[in-house]
Amino acid sequence: MAKSEAAAVKEPGSKGKLKLIIVIVVALLLAIGLSVGATWYFMHSAQSKPAPAPAEASTTKQPAIYESMAPAFVANFKDANGRQRYMQVSITMMARNQGDLEALKVHMPVIRNNLVMLFSGQTYETLATPVGQELLRQKATASVQEVAQKEVGKVVVEQLLFTNYVLQ
């Protein structure tokens, strides 16, 4: 008799646990199915989009091309005391496209004129410091880029490099 009462007591509890296990298994299967479906959906949509490979190819830089501007620039200017000073600068242009650089060379008289005017308008006190030299190099680069944009239609020269710099 005791065994039948114990079986009767376990019977209703085991049905409740069985339902709980079935609900958990169904929920897990549903979660797994949803994750597989979502993964397939997003992977499939990512494959259908065009690859951005051409955009990445255009961002790779071409090798630098260096073109020296000969002869060296010589400019005179006055210092704060009114004394006559001279500056000699050798410049090298750095570009990435030889064809564009050749197109810019046609306008070299305009570029040289603008640079001589820029150099002549400086003060000795400014040019004697490394910061002043760097500022002058940046201004000269901007001047050449402005001429390139106006005449060639795009910025050809990436930067100007001072390869020789003498103040007297």
From TrEMBL:
Record's bilayer topology term: Single-pass membrane protein
Keyword Endoplasmic reticulum attributed: no
Superkingdom of source: Bacteria
One GO term (biological process): bacterial-type flagellum-dependent swarming motility
Any one GO CC term of the record: bacterial-type flagellum basal body
Organism: Pseudomonas gingeri
Family: Belongs to the FliL family.
Compartments reported by the entry: Cell inner membrane; Cell membrane
Bilayer-spanning residue ranges: 20-43
The keyword Nuclease is annotated on this UniProt entry: no
UniProt keywords, alphabetically: Cell inner membrane, Cell membrane, Cell projection, Chemotaxis, Cilium, Flagellar rotation, Flagellum, Membrane, Transmembrane, Transmembrane helix
Alphabetized PANTHER family for the sequence: FLAGELLAR PROTEIN FLIL (PTHR35091:SF2)
Lineage, opening ranks: Bacteria, Pseudomonadati, Pseudomonadota, Gammaproteobacteria, Pseudomonadales
Classification via InterPro entries: FliL
Pfam families reported for this sequence: FliL
Signal peptide: none
Protein name: Flagellar protein FliL
Free-text function comment from the UniProt entry: Controls the rotational direction of flagella during chemotaxis.
